[in-house]
Every structure is written in structure tokens, then in C-alpha cells.
Specification:
This protein has helices at residues 8-18, 28-37, 43-66, 70-88, 98-115, 161-172, 186-190, 201-211, 230-240, 258-264, 276-289, 291-304, 309-316, 346-353, 378-393, and strands at residues 122-129, 132-139, 146-152, 176-180, 217-227, 246-250, 332-337, 358-363. The protein is of the alpha/beta class. It folds into three domains: 1-119, acylaminoacyl peptidase (de novo design (two linked rop proteins), Up-down Bundle); 121-256 and 319-397, Rossmann fold; 258-316, no CATH class. An eight-stranded mixed β-sheet has the order 1-2-4-3-5-6-7-8, sandwiched between helices. α9 links the parallel β5 (217-227) and β6. α6 packs across α15 (378-393) and α12 crosses α13 (309-316). The longest helix has 24 residues, at 43-66. The two termini are 33 Å apart. This is Alpha/beta fold hydrolase. One of its GO terms (molecular function) is hydrolase activity.
Length: 397
């Protein structure tokens, strides 16, 4: 599926941004006209044009707010939040670029203004975690105990984005939600500089502890949903945190070792990858030829706080569910997108390693849902996922 751009990475990120339109996070015309202004493959052009659009829509939100137009302001704040997020996406090659905090901060602030105007209550929360805290949002339908979803993203998502991706659909179906950012994500990497960790159960257990304190939560029906890299992180947590009643891996990910990925591109001796100088040179050439590889390495260096490519490879070595997946006991849904350009083959590997009650759910091009994490077809994805959750958690909707 190609949207405006020939480059796969630019096309996919446009589809991602535009795909939130059904949930109020985008307007199709705004996205298309912005994309037409962008120079193919140019990160600076991407930033400048999305930032212009975000600023324009944010100004509309402020104007509506000043006139007491609550619904209009909410709609514009939600779109501005998504456009600022998109603008910031390719900036991580220079971790000291001041635009990272500024633009991401504007995205978060626009979202926080939007949720103050929601019809359902939203609490900004800080969950105690080791010697600090992790930020989140608790969304509730009402005050009665309900099944609750614990939702997190992956390699590049933000906690605010998760509202558009899952929460809006969940609230309509009677689910409460706690979205959060862990190490390597959102505010935690940008403000606290805490990098990703492979043992995600250390992150999820404090979340479950917190949910058990809330009277609106049915503690026996807490399900975890992990998106993108979260397709590894959520199953990893479920392997050791057995209070979870269900797990969704979208898309399923068995291993995300950067060294393993790099070796697939190299026809020579795999032992060459043990030489740091060779690794830097070889991956550097790939980065110069591929926007996708460049972005993945730059974002990896940022989110893992790696000093060089060789260190990034070392830090991702533990990211595998080998010897872990068979410890999961709760019902698990493994999702596969047929044309996933990130995780090809990985969902089946995860599914095959599971010994718990398990379901494999495939999305295809015929369904317009073949892209990574079903972007462009989120209404359809959420329909199928929530029907599985309803049955698994015995929810009547």
C-alpha cells in the first residue's frame, strides 16, 4: 500500500497519521495536502510541513476555546496532537536537537487540553516505578468495576497516541483503560532518559498493582495489549505477571535483536559482526541507502541510549522470547499483518512457541489491513480484537 510517497517508510508514517481519522485524530485532506508539500526522503521537509499543519490546527483549537466552543476545540486539539507527533518522528538522529522536546511537548500539551474536554473522565496518573514514576492516563466509563485494558506501545509510539489507536474503541465497548509509557518510550525517554529494558514484567507489575487499587477495575479481568515492539514486551510481561487475564500481541514479535536483523542483509561471514568497526561501517552504508534502516538505527540509539551501533546491537540481544513464551498461562492473541515490513514471520514464531490457550489472527490485503499493526484499517482491527476480548473476558457488548 503506497500513500503519496514511493519510499515505504514515509508512506507508512503518512498512513499511520491519516489512519486516526475515524477517532478524531486526523482529517484526510489536512494529511494529504501536508504530504504533497514534503520532499520525498527529506527528514527536514517532513518536520517543517507537519509542524506547519500542527501549528495551524492548534491555533484553530485555541480560537475555538477562547469562544467557548468546546467540541470544536477538542477536535482541533486532538488533530494538532497527532500532527505534532508526526512532525517530531524523524528528529532522533541528533538526540540534542531542541525540537524533540519542544515539538513532542506541544503534542502532549495539545492532547492534555483535549482530554479536559472529553465526555468521559480521564485521569493523568503517575505510577511508582523503582525510584521514579511512569506516566499514564486512566480512562473510565463510569464508577462501576469493569474489565480493564492495560495498553502500551512499542519502539516509537507515545502514550497519547494510544487513545486514538485503542482507547476510543474500548470506551465505546465498556472497557476501562490504563495507557502508560515505560522506559524507552514517550516522556520516559525524552525527560527521564530511561532506555528500553527487555524484562518488561518489571514495568507491568507496578501497573497491575496500581489497577488493583482502583474501585473501577475488575481485578480479575485485566488484559494487556502491546503494540508493535509491544508485541514482544506484552508477552514477555505476561510470562511472569500471572494476574493478567489475557494478552494481545499486535503484531506478534518473537525476537527483535538488531544484530540478527543486520546479519540478514550481510551475505558474508556472520562472525564479521563481532568486529565493532566492521559493524559501524556496514550498517552505516545501509543507512545511507535506506530511509527505513536510517530511521530504525537512529531511533534505536535514542531509545536504548546507545553510544554506537555495536552497543545498540548488544543492548538488543536479550530481546527474545526463546525460553520465555512457554511460561505464559493466560489466553493470548497473536496478530499478524500479511505485508508487515517490520515483523515478517515473527507472529508465527511467537504463536508456535506458546503453550497457553492461543489464537492466531491474520489480516490481509483483501481486507485492506495488511500493513504493520493494521494501520489504515483500525476500525476493522478493533472490531475483531474486541470480539476476541469480549469472548475471552466474558464481556457482553
Amino acid at each position: 500500500m503506497k500513500c503519496i510517497f514511493e519510499d515505504q517508510t514515509f508512506s507508512f508514517e503518512l498512513l499511520r497519521t491519516m489512519g486516526y481519522a475515524p477517532f478524531g485524530g486526523a482529517d484526510i485532506g489536512e494529511c494529504l495536502t501536508t504530504a504533497y508539500r514534503i520532499e520525498e526522503g527529506n527528514f527536514e521537509s517532513w518536520y517543517n510541513e507537519w509542524y506547519k499543519t500542527a501549528e495551524r490546527i492548534h491555533a484553530l483549537a485555541e480560537e475555538s476555546m477562547s469562544r467557548g466552543k468546546r467540541v470544536s476545540a477538542r477536535e482541533c486539539y486532538l488533530r494538532a496532537h497527532n500532527y505534532y507527533r508526526t512532525a517530531e518522528f524523524f528528529l532522533h538522529g541528533d538526540q540534542n536537537d531542541p525540537r524533540i522536546l519542544d515539538t513532542w511537548g506541544k503534542s502532549r500539551n495539545a492532547f492534555r487540553k483535549a482530554i479536559q474536554l472529553f465526555d468521559t473522565p480521564v485521569d493523568e496518573v503517575k505510577i511508582p516505578y523503582e525510584d521514579t514514576f511512569l506516566p499514564g492516563y486512566f480512562y473510565r466509563v463510569d464508577e462501576s468495576p469493569r474489565p480493564t485494558l492495560l495498553i502500551h506501545g512499542g519502539f516509537d509510539s507515545t502514550g497519547e497516541e494510544l487513545y486514538l489507536e485503542v482507547v476510543a474503541s474500548a470506551l465505546q465497548r465498556g472497557y476501562n483503560c490504563l495507557t502508560f509509557e515505560g522506559p524507552g518510550q514517550g516522556a520516559v525517554i525524552r525527560e527521564q532518559r530511561l532506555p528500553f529494558r527487555h524484562d518488561w514484567e518489571k514495568v507491568v507489575t507496578p501497573m497491575v498493582d496500581y489497577l488493583e487499587t482502583r474501585p473501577e477495575v475488575d481485578a480479575k479481568r485485566i488484559a494487556i495489549i502491546g503494540i508493535s515492539l509491544g508485541g514482544y514486551l506484552a508477552p514477555r510481561a505476561a510470562a511472569y505477571e500471572h494476574r493478567l487475564a489475557a494478552c494481545v500481541a499486535n503484531d506478534g514479535l518473537f525476537s527483535n535483536q538488531f544484530g540478527e536483523i543486520g546479519r540478514r542483509f550481510y551475505p558474508g561471514n556472520p562472525q564479521d559482526f563481532e568486529n565493532p568497526a566492521f559493524v559501524e561501517q556496514f550498517i552505516g552504508v545501509l543507512m545511507s541507502k535506506s530511509i527505513g534502516v536510517r530511521w530504525a538505527i537512529e531511533n534505536g540509539m535514542f531509545t536504548y541510549q546507545a553510544k554506537n551501533i555495536h552497543e545498540l546491537i548488544e543492548k538488543t540481544e536479550p530481546i527474545t522470547l526463546a525460553g520465555v513464551a512457554d511460561k505464559i498461562t493466560c489466553p493470548t492473541l497473536v496478530v499478524e499483518a500479511a505485508e508487515d515490513h517490520f515483523f515478517a514471520g515473527q507472529p508465527q514464531m511467537l504463536y508456535d512457541a506458546l503453550t497457553c490457550p492461543k489464537t492466531f489472527m491474520r489480516f490481509t490485503a483483501e481486507e485492506s489491513a495488511e500493513e504493520h499493526c493494521q494501520f489504515g484499517a483500525l476500525l476493522y482491527f478493533n472490531q475483531r480484537m474486541f470480539e476476541w476480548l469480549d469472548e475471552t473476558l466474558q464481556v457482553n457488548n
